[in-house]
Design goal:
about 850 residues, mainly alpha, three-stranded antiparallel sheet, two-stranded antiparallel ribbon, 7 strands, about 50% helix
């Protein structure tokens, strides 16, 4: 055992931070274990900055390190685990309740800043706000545990660190795994599970009575404002507490870590400015004059890693909340307010996200996040207790609850309250999404699968019935009470396109005019006396989330909205096109690999196709579309057969159809296919994306070899290529000619297209093609059957190649030097044999 003196401590720390991951973690663990409290106190904020790089500096790349990193991943998981060396440091610092660290308010989302600056404040942040008397700047004064999790959550939304996460295609990163671990560890579903290590911390004294501030966001049945849980727990538990050791039995000591993780993760990730902040066109135009961090905030969509992390959080919160039914500990009150706390935040987050996300294959991430939230019955507490192993669980695979009976995989009467409180999340987002599927290529396997997922979820047992039942109690003319001070969500939500059949965001005058014209027919007029128990809940939630100018119109109107028939018509057309496309692909494949040579080609290489999807994936499209059609029929009780001609005539006569071919604003699937045929690659041919008829390993290896040769002999290549002698003509037969390519300079704002002149160079990419390899192997097989040595065979091939090039290099009348340079800039120089 030895101790590190003060003089050598920072030298040892700096040396450890400069080491590779495994050595770094080991040396830091040793230093943290053998240092004094004062040294640890000063080291902690610098260590956190070095790990997460909040100012865009070099960090530990937790969002770039994947499972492919081997032992480094295990070391990082151990170092950051809830009982690992870093948390041991945190709990050591927590022994002194006076140790606090300042977290800049500038790192917080704009909505959190507004909450902090509001006179009523927020119960969680009110005791953390600190104003520097000298600089008059507001910061959050945090204990080490809170300080770590604020930085950990901010790392995911930090605009200066977005690039590192967006460059990684694998979802299994260290950051994702740590998020799963923290969510499961600090938000346990089993009431018998203790949050380890058991630690008493008296730095958060919330035993004094705190009156829950009133808020316009609170529904009458809410326990308190969003995120306020501790006063409720205190009030209930302290009154029932009859133990002698009051300090150790304080409810805050049981739940304060869970409350921090829950509040910080939800507020940081669901209030993210890049998603929830309203952006005008002027903001986009002016963003190029702002710092890089602001430009990233406006231009960057959340990464796939972000979507999967939020989805894991939503799953666990469903089970965390569900476990309150069998929990009599101090944690039960926190569990009860979890879902009410996130409802409005998640709805705003999702509405903005869907509005900005392009409807391509990546939209599946957003879709699954939405479907996860609106199906809490799929994540009961008894089922989610199983650990989410990021190594073996792929979040893109459809979730099926394990060890759970099928009758529990659909909503029951106990879920009516959740459906009523989140009616907008079901209906408005469904109405927002459904028309978009009529303007995309449903023949695409990814798009057809997404449509099938939506219709399958909404057609599951009991859900359409429950939605109809709740919609019966909603009035279409929503008015905000005149005596209530309203702070609306509608300022941060995108406008819902005006539509006479579905929910709209319109001025009050237009809403009233639509109602007078009879454009909306509600089911209230057709039902008898009904129970109005959901009326207050649904009206209040509509007012909270969308504002007084929102006009709710039911999803299950009679007859169904024309958008439903439009989509069904599009599904019918796309199903026919999908069958035709499959037949065409099968015919092409049969023609390509027919006969003796076709069989050899099929054996030597994988099936060649310019299609992004395989034939097997294409064959699933008709099944998805037919199942989607059946689900829509069941969901909306449509029994009559839909004729394409009649449907088109009906839509045009109602004024609801449009002629896509005459409207340049809509990019139809036919236009997309036409444009794909004219797209041409103008970059460096050696950097062309690897094709299906090439060996990826050989392409990369031969490119590096060619790059090395060109860098070392480029000057000689240039000299010989422009030499009028025989050797110059021979080089022109072997080397690639000069040419002008185009690329986009992404280091400059606007990414301008620039020209790049490539000199004479050698290219070896052809030798990585399966066709070339097949010919070589076939020739080697013939040489082997004729008892020729492989060395002689390869030498003969090389000699034949050189002889062929020598013959081509013989002077020919009228031959000229090949080049693709533009003529400008070279004066009167003529690139030919006579120079």
């Amino acid at each position: 055992m030895f101790s590190v003196d003060q003089d050598n401590f920072w030298v040892a720390v700096q040396h450890a931070l400069n080491q590779p991951i495994r050595t770094r973690c080991a040396e830091l663990a040793m230093l943290l274990d053998r240092s004094s409290l004062l040294e640890l106190h000063h080291l902690f904020p610098q260590l956190i900055d070095h790990i997460f790089g909040p100012l865009g500096t070099v960090c530990w790349d937790l969002r770039s390190c994947t499972s492919n990193s081997g032992e480094d991943v295990k070391e990082l998981y151990h170092f950051f685990s809830p009982c690992g060396p870093l948390f041991k440091l945190i709990y050591t610092l927590l022994r002194d309740p006076n140790i606090k660290y300042e977290f800049p308010v500038s790192y917080l989302p704009s909505k959190i800043k507004q909450i902090i600056e509001h006179p009523l404040g927020h119960p969680f942040y009110s005791e953390l706000v600190n104003m520097n008397p000298q600089t008059r700047q507001i910061t959050l004064l945090l204990n080490p545990f809170d300080y770590y999790f604020f930085h950990f959550a901010y790392h995911l939304i930090n605009p200066l660190q977005q690039r590192s996460g967006s460059m990684v295609t694998s979802w299994n990163t260290v950051y994702y795994g740590l998020c799963c671990h923290y969510i499961l560890h600090f938000l346990p579903t089993d009431p018998c599970t203790k949050i380890l290590p058991e630690f008493y911390y008296n730095g958060k004294n919330r035993n004094k009575h705190i009156s829950p501030p009133s808020s316009a966001h609170n529904s009458p049945r809410n326990i308190g404002p969003p995120g306020l849980v501790s006063p409720i727990v205190f009030k209930k538990t302290i009154e029932d507490n009859t133990t002698v050791n009051l300090d150790r039995q304080q409810p805050c000591n049981d739940i304060w870590r869970s409350e921090t993780v829950l509040t910080v993760f939800v507020d940081m990730w669901l209030y993210n400015d890049s998603v929830s902040q309203k952006i005008n066109n002027s903001d986009l135009n002016n963003s190029y004059n702002k710092p890089v961090s602001m430009r990233l905030r406006y231009n960057e969509l959340p990464t796939g890693e972000y979507m999967r992390i939020v989805r894991v959080l939503i799953k666990q919160l469903h089970s965390f909340s569900d476990s309150a039914k069998c929990d009599d500990t101090n944690m039960s009150e926190l569990k009860k307010v979890t879902i009410p706390m996130i409802q409005g935040k998640f709805y705003v987050f999702l509405r903005n996200l869907i509005h900005r996300w392009p409807l391509d294959g990546s939209f599946r991430l957003v879709l699954e996040l939405w479907l996860t939230y609106i199906q809490p019955w799929r994540y009961p507490a008894v089922n989610i207790i199983k650990k989410i192993n990021p190594t073996y669980v792929n979040p893109d695979v459809e979730d099926v609850a394990l060890n759970c009976d099928k009758q529990n995989l659909h909503p029951t009467k106990e879920h009516l309250n959740f459906i009523a409180e989140n009616l907008l999340c079901y209906v408005v987002i469904f109405e927002q999404l459904l028309p978009r599927f009529g303007r995309v290529d449903l023949v695409s396997p990814k798009i057809s699968l997404m449509l099938y997922r939506i219709t399958k979820v909404f057609d599951q047992q009991n859900l359409p019935q429950f939605l109809r039942e709740i919609e019966q109690y909603v009035e279409n003319h929503q008015q905000s009470p005149t005596h209530q001070k309203y702070i609306g969500w509608q300022n941060s939500l995108p406008t819902v396109s005006p539509n006479i059949n579905w929910s709209t965001t319109l001025p009050a005058s237009r809403i009233s005019r639509n109602n007078r014209n009879g454009n909306v027919t509600f089911m209230n007029s057709t039902i008898g006396p009904a129970d109005r128990k959901w009326t207050v809940i649904t009206k209040q939630k509509i007012l909270e989330f969308e504002g007084p100018n929102f006009c709710y119109k039911p999803l299950f109107s009679q007859p169904p909205a024309h958008e439903v028939f439009e989509l069904m018509l599009q599904i019918k057309k796309s199903s026919r096109l999908a069958y035709n496309l499959i037949k065409m692909k099968q015919q092409e494949q049969n023609e390509l690999y027919s006969g003796f040579w076709g069989s050899i080609k099929y054996f030597l290489q994988s099936p060649m196709s310019n299609d992004e999807f395989s034939l097997e994936e294409r064959k699933k499209v008709p099944m998805y579309l037919e199942a989607s059609m059946g689900n829509l029929r069941d969901m909306f009780d449509i029994t009559e057969e839909i004729s394409e001609d009649e449907a088109e005539t009906t839509m045009i006569s109602n004024g609801n159809g449009f002629e896509i071919s005459q409207d340049f604003k809509f990019l139809t699937p036919d236009k997309v296919r036409t444009r794909l045929k004219t797209i041409k690659y103008d970059g460096d041919p050696d950097l062309l994306p690897i094709r299906s008829d090439e060996c990826a390993f050989l392409v990369r290896m031969l490119y590096q070899l060619a790059l090395y040769i060109n860098e070392n002999f480029g000057d000689k290549f240039y000299y010989f290529y422009h030499n009028p002698s025989f050797w110059g003509r021979l080089c022109r037969q072997i080397l690639c000619p000069p040419m002008t390519v185009h690329k986009y300079d992404k280091s400059v704002i606007g990414s301008p297209r620039i020209n790049v002149n490539l000199p004479p160079r050698i290219s070896l990419r052809y030798f990585a093609s399966y066709q070339f390899l097949g010919y070589v192997l076939f020739g080697a097989l013939i040489a082997w059957t004729l008892n020729y040595c492989i060395d002689i065979y390869l030498f003969t091939l090389l000699m034949l190649f050189i002889l062929y090039k020598f013959i081509r290099a013989i002077p020919n009348t009228g031959s000229s030097m090949r080049h693709s340079y533009p003529t400008e800039g070279f004066g009167n120089i003529s690139f030919n044999d006579s120079f």
